[in-house]
Specification:
With 348 residues, this protein is of the alpha/beta class. The chain has eight helices and 18 strands. It has two domains: 249 residues, Aminopeptidase (3-Layer(aba) Sandwich), CATH 3.40.630.10; 78 residues, OB fold (Dihydrolipoamide Acetyltransferase, E2P) (Beta Barrel). It has a 13-stranded mixed sheet, sandwiched between helices. It has a three-stranded antiparallel sheet with strand order 11-13-14, with no helix packed on it. A two-stranded antiparallel sheet has the order 17-18. β7, α6 and β8 form a beta-alpha-beta unit. The longest helix has 18 residues.
Length: 348
């Protein structure tokens, strides 16, 4: 019971990362009346004291990449508040610290990028595949357990960028045919001080895409600052985000009017895929996200193909020339206008 007691005392992170302690499931009720279920190592389900059938089902995940620590610290802070009775959620919440092995190793992943393993069941060839399979099962279990008549599902998958960025915080909205870009979601981003949103135009098997595609969740991948070790994050720069997160889980409903013009929207113009070992950029992989190139600038090449920035210019996001063959080397994006209705849509 040592691990369970450590979680009950509020140290969700410490218990998750101590792999010397055997894991066991547990259920209990905290002093505030909130019900807790420890479902797997690093996964805690929280249910408010009084279920009314109008609750949201909110997944808050971190640690899908093990070296991205600031979101993990935010999840620990929120969880500690719940476990010690200071935070009383109004909604069902699934709190996730996703990849303990990679976190302990202070690395992005062990063998394979886990945030590309959420399209369905994986052959369990390594620990990354095993954890991705477990997380997909627990997501299915969580959403299936909702008692709300009108399913209002959210998934905020929190990360940190591995390089500098022109926007300190930004979100990636995964592509799906489901209605997962609500005005309410963008209103939350505006309240949280997120600087930009990148609207994907193609499916990618990330954790947030999984929830959007299979469960029609209002889902985002959130990039919160830059990678740093535990204790070295400037969490004060994320305080506005944390306060909005706290409001999301404790208030019955947030204002749904998106009024902040400072939230910049980007559309993906192209995805550059690495087709050969000759692939290269004309700039370093460490280039800051959203660095802009005027029209006609040579961006890179792959064998006998050269890539030039398109009309109007393009900005580069997530550049990495060292990816495996057939994988994304970067996204190219442009700022875009949107139409505001029940769903936020790119203006044609």
């Amino acid at each position: 019971m040592a691990l369970v007691q450590q979680v009950r005392d509020g140290d969700f992170l410490g218990a998750t990362l101590d792999l010397s302690q055997p894991f066991e499931t547990a259920e209990w009720t905290v002093s505030s009346g909130v019900q807790c279920q420890l479902l797997m190592r690093g996964v805690l389900q929280v249910t408010p004291p009084n279920i009314k059938g109008t609750e949201k089902d909110i997944v808050l995940s971190s640690g899908i990449h093990g070296d991205e620590t600031s979101p993990i610290e935010l999840v620990q802070r929120l969880t500690e508040g719940v476990l010690q009775g200071r935070v009383i959620p109004a909604h069902r919440i699934l709190l996730i610290i996703g990849h303990p092995e990679a976190i302990n190793a202070q690395t992005r992943y062990i063998d394979e990028n886990m945030n590309r393993l959420f399209k369905g069941h994986n052959e369990e060839r390594n620990v990354d595949c095993k954890v991705a399979n477990q997380l997909q099962k627990v997501i299915s279990h969580f959403f299936a357990g909702s008692r709300a008549e009108n399913k209002d599902r959210w998934h905020l998958d929190m990360h940190s960028a591995i390089r500098d960025s022109k926007h300190y915080t930004f979100a990636v909205s995964p592509f799906t045919a489901k209605p997962t870009r609500s005005n309410r979601l963008f209103s939350f981003l505006s309240r949280a001080g997120i600087e930009a949103v990148l609207m994907s135009n193609a499916s990618s098997p990330t954790f947030s895409w999984h929830s959007a595609e299979y469960y029609a969740a209002q889902a985002l991948t959130l990039e919160l600052g830059k990678v740093a070790e535990f204790g070295e994050n400037d969490l004060s720069s994320l305080e506005l985000f944390y306060e909005a997160l706290l409001a999301l889980v404790t208030e019955q409903e947030l204002p749904s009017e998106w009024q902040n013009d400072e939230l910049k929207i980007y559309k993906v113009t192209r995805t550059l895929i690495k087709h050969s070992e000759q692939f290269s950029f004309t700039f370093p992989d460490e280039l800051a996200n959203f660095t802009f190139f005027e029209q006609g600038k040579l961006l890179g090449s792959d064998e006998d193909v050269e890539y030039f920035s398109l009309s109007g210019g393009e900005a580069v996001v997530f550049p990495n020339s060292r990816v495996a063959l057939g994988h994304r080397a970067c996204l190219l994006v442009q700022q875009a206008d949107v139409d505001l209705g029940e769903q936020v849509t790119l203006r044609q």
